User: Fold this.
Amino acid sequence: MDRLAGLVCYTVTNMKEARSLAPAFSTAVRVRYADTDCEGVVYYGSYLTYFEVARVELLRALGVPIGEVRRRGLVMPAIDARCCYHRPGRVDDLLEVRVWLGERHRATFGFDYEIWRADELVASGNTRHLCVEVEGWRAVRPPAWFDELWERAAAGHAISDSSIS
Assistant:
């Protein structure tokens, strides 16, 4: 168990370094009954959905809803996802999902996340995505409009969303 605790701390420490590069975007999520197991505890896979909610709302706040991304000929499938569970979320909890820009490479980019209930860290993690051209379905470098979005997000130009998803 000590080895596992060390791994979790190491992961969170690396995320803190990544977070210092850009401001966080945050959105609220209310835990629905459908997100939980029979005990009313958030099912582990639901946290990945909460990560997606934050990514999609970040895009919307930057002026490009996820549907527009596809209309512009790009999809961004997740190619890696990780999540550490710190405390159980429960049905009807109001959670704050924070997202930061992660590493960016030629055709891939990532996001780091934290999910909070008031002052308690519930979960943290990251996802890695690949830019894929809709026509031809091949990996590509992000187009110029994506580069501009990334720069605006890095500069903190997305307004955090206070609505509940």
User: Anything to note?
Assistant: Confidence is low (pLDDT under 50) at residues 1-13. The two ends are 35 Å apart (CA to CA). The chain has one domain: 2-154.
